[in-house]
Design goal:
This protein is an alpha/beta fold. It has 6 helices and 11 strands. β10, α3 and β11 form a beta-alpha-beta unit. α2 runs parallel beside α3.
Length: about 290
């Protein structure tokens, strides 16, 4: 393989076709040739007089690289440039999420042109509630329709063991379950451990979770134009406390629903979500779709 096209050439070298010069944009999926690292652009910054691009892979891991030569975009070598400055009128408002690159789904995978949704398989993804289901659908919906995997809300996990027993998991009928606040010694971790003692659960059920009290927190604060999620006083309903801190209506269930729709509307791609959620959802999808 010849690397003559990578980078500047001496004056005596034969003329080569110049590489396309592409400005880095949030959400753009690139491959670093030297390391093989593949990820979406999550930030571009200037450090030590050079521009650095951070690429986040599908498991939420991030690595930084110097802009310039040595990248593949859609399998083709390119020279990566700093973002093109936009006029004030064209600039996005603070917190505006990056648009999904053409030809990519919101999860960062290659969009399958002309692919019809598959007939739903027996396997399922279970999430704790409606908001969790809507978030998973928004980011991974295109991928799940291709795979024929349906997402269903549980509305809580207190009766998880009984729900799994009713489902009767087995080969070709698997369950991937995403649980809120699945941390060591939590109530949720004890429920999950007990559920996995069911006959037929081993190898056919995967229970994973994120560390957040509520899936709302899986949205990166910078996506919303804030530095961090507000602290909610102990004893206050978490969603109500968040909406109150934002100065949004919070008195009724309808207020909570409308507040969530505002938050969900800020999410455009997986780059707007925390790595601790991204990795778990991808793990579940891999578990359900593996041959």
């Amino acid at each position: 393989m010849s690397y003559d096209n990578w980078g500047p050439r001496t004056l005596s070298a034969p003329a080569k076709r110049a590489l396309p010069e592409v400005p880095a944009e949030p959400g753009m999926v690139l491959e670093d040739v030297q390391s093989g690292w593949v990820g979406a652009v999550v930030r571009i910054e200037k450090s030590g007089g050079m521009h650095i691009v951070a690429l986040e892979d599908r498991h939420g891991r991030t690595k930084s690289f110097r802009l310039g030569f040595g990248f593949l975009l859609d399998g083709q070598p390119v020279k990566l440039l700093p973002p093109v400055p936009r006029s004030a009128s064209a600039s996005a408002a603070p917190g505006t999420a990056a648009a999904v690159p053409a030809g990519r789904t919101a999860s960062g995978s290659v969009k399958v042109a002309g692919q019809r949704a598959q007939v739903a398989k027996a396997s399922r993804i279970w999430v704790e509630g409606k908001h969790d289901a809507e978030l998973v659908e928004k980011v991974w919906g295109d991928d799940l329709r291709v795979e024929g995997i349906v997402v269903e809300p549980l509305h809580g996990v207190d009766d998880l063991k009984a729900a799994i027993a009713d489902f009767s998991p087995g080969p070709g009928r698997k369950l991937g379950i995403l649980v809120d606040h699945l941390v060591r010694d939590s109530k949720e971790s004890r429920i999950a451990a007990d559920a996995m003692t069911l006959p037929g659960a081993a190898g056919n059920v995967l229970i994973v979770g994120h560390p957040y009290v509520d899936v709302w927190q899986a949205i990166r604060p910078k996506t919303l134009g804030i530095e961090r999620w507000p602290e909610v006083p102990r004893g206050t309903d978490w969603k109500t406390g968040i909406l109150k801190a934002f100065g949004w209506p919070h008195a009724t269930a309808e207020d909570v629903g409308l507040g969530w729709q505002k938050l969900l509307g800020a999410v455009r791609s997986y780059a707007d979500l925390e790595a601790s959620l991204l990795g778990r959802v991808e793990e579940v999808i891999d578990f359900l779709t593996a041959p």
